[in-house]
Amino acid sequence: MPLSSAPSGPSPARPIAIATVSFATLLLELALTRLFSVVLFYHFAFLAISVALLGLGAGGVYSFVRRQRLSAVETPTLASSSCTLSSLAILLALEVVLHVPVSLDLTTGNFFRLSAIYLACAVPFFFTGLIFSVVFARQPGRIGEFYGADLLGGAAACLAVVPVLNLIGGPNAILLAALVMAIASAIWSRARSSRRIALALAAALALLLGGNLALRGRLVDIVYAKGARRDQPWVLYSRWNAISRVEVDQQGESKAIVIDADASTYIMQAQPEHFVEQGYGALMSAPPAVVNILRPRGDYAIIGPGGGVDVLRALANGSKDVTAIEINPIIANDIMRGRYAADSYHLYERPEVHLHVQDGRSFIRNSADRYDVIQMTLVDTWASTAAGAFALSENNLYTVEAFREYFDHLKPDGIIAITRWEFKEPREALRVASQGISALRQIGVSDPRHHFLVVSEGELDSDGRPVAVLIKKSDFTAQEVEAALDHIRRNSALSIVHLPQLLNAPLPPSECQALIQPLGCSPSLKDFGAYKTAAAAPRQAFDSLIDPSPGAPDQDSAVRLSWIRRYPYDVSPVFDNAPFFFFTFKTSRLLDEILHPGARGIDWKVNLGVAVLFMLLVISALAVLAFLILPLAFHAPARAASILPLLYFVAVGFGYIIVEIALIQRFVLFLGHPTYALTVVIFLLLLSSGAGSLAARRQLRSSASPRMRPPLSLIIVALLLYFFLLPPLLASQVGLAFSLKLLLSGLLLVPLGFFMGMPFPAGLHSLEAAQAGAIEWAWAMNAASSVLGSVLAILIAIHFGLGATLLSAAFAYLLALLLASRLRPVAVA
User: Fold this and answer.
1) Of 541, 420, 521, which is closest to residue 471 (Cα–Cα)?
2) Is 511 helix (H, G, I), strand (E, B) or coil?
3) Contacts of 124 by beta carbon, 8 Å cutoff, 6+ apart
4) What is the pTM for the complete model shown?
5) What is the CATH number of domain 3-217+604-822?
6) Domain 258-502, CATH 3.40.50.150 — does that match?
7) Domains of the chain: which residue ranges?
8) Does the chain have fewer CB atoms within 10 Å around its N or its C terminus?
């Protein structure tokens, strides 16, 4: 008996029920990305995408394989029961995520613990996939209406996720998803008894949510994060928002701001006027302080000021104008200007300090001011936003285009001062230098060798050394080098990594110390050559990059490029098209590290993200094989079906998810915040796609395949145009008011989303004529291809750039266009 034998009559409440289920499901998925980035690590946020899409596909497969048994159950009863089970499964998944510790060690125990989290979180999505595939199959005449309700519900979740996370936090957002799913069960139910059960469950969840809010997370909150227990007595304060989870921890006599249980920044408990007396003079022995010596009374723009260390140093050295740009409002307002303002002696409320809560790069781009120093010190929260693992604000701070914008906002002798972690085999600060060289070339500097000064905390003989890279817009002068050397001589913790090439610029005898030997007092070309020969390997790396061919600057570019290719880490410059600054492992080296693990630097957690992507790709491929291909091969009714029509849905699934991920990343810089990019892009795409799916039902009444070609063709043309025009268009309009940016985003995304909403429901309409169960298979294959596509989109972006990602989406839609002729047309009533 086919599924259609147990339909119930049309119900006006059914689209509302579908939209409610969709809202709860997408809210759960987005909240899990935030929760995973705290409990696990930010790149594990991809698990939420993979788990969600795989669960949806598995539900479609189950509805196909068990369609005879399910046909005996009416749609409202099946949907209501599934929603109730999904609500309970969400609670179970939340408990598993919060109470199962997973670290970065590649051990069997961690593998099983991660698998438990993966499977537990997949169950709620399984029930959603079951509901939608059954409902779509039983009422094919209303597919456009139902698909539109699905997308509208998802769009509403995109609008809600940011305020929900800001107001109630990650665990409570998941409790809210369970509550909404219980409400959906009540909407579906026709029987009074089942409706009472659903409403009782919703009431219980509402009490749990309200109680947890009233008790500030004492009932349900983080227990383990990064494998360590977090409910410790030293946690003084914690709060969630859409960007991160922020704690204030008591660490001895100091207080530290801890972001996503990982990155930390100390609250500066000192006054600039009493900097030394209050015990903070030691901060001048840190590498970032060198720029304060060179520009003691300059105008500073500090990106990512955190607890205020760079702000305090600037003020203590005489600066009267410090612009601090902090992306996280919890740090800026709740901590530094709120609860812990007195601890920092109201540092961020001083008249010399101008604090802005905004993405750092976007602020600089729109600023009309010019600065003596633009400074970033260890800005790498390693914390994902709700936009997913690789839509990080920090990534876009470290691109060649970003450096070019920093130079544009410096005074003629201004300095970019960036401090990064460095290693015995340098890569992060080395890549900063690589970025600086490319940006200097773009602003017309023909010989960048005179523009760099690099200082480390101690010798680069162990991993985890902070290294300050100072890049001056003009040549460093002999007087500036003298001042830096004098400061280094008086602070034994500092060590020179690279000096600018100041040929025949003698230094005073007082500077002829062992720390600059064998340079001597007159650093001639010959002396610099001797310095290079005598320098340790890490210093040689910086010299080889910045000054690869002494005396022959015309040969620098070719020699430098050759050296970068041979270097064991990827230190080539990164651009906005592929803003993955922190991924310095070359693929071959990463695989070797996984297969033959040894001592790993602190950047392993970052580079592991690429390994996780490859693992997810393999897992996703195996899941597609297990849940789709093998059931198709062994299920007798399915063996007669042609695979080509179903491949159409694979292509559409690939295309949609790849476009979505690529556009989120593209709009981060334009809208000024990763969370805005997530909300605006997904909301507009889902909303317009919902409208497109509703329009498809009217436009494709008589013949599915011929009329599917125009929207598919328009999508392909639009993506090709976006490939060429979108980056320069968004860059040129970055100065618009935010309301106008939203309007432009709508003009760019709504037409594309409208046509992207047509191919999937149109294809489902045409499949109904093929065979029973075809719709369930199409739903499953579309979801599974989205699993693979979500991972492939980032892998393509990392290796080939966001432009190539959009081209890949265009190619997927081209395949859909070619496969559309394999779908049988069917008239829709």
Assistant:
1) 420
2) helix
3) 25, 28, 55, 86, 89, 90, 93, 181
4) 0.84
5) 1.20.1250.20
6) yes
7) 3-217+604-822, 258-502
8) C
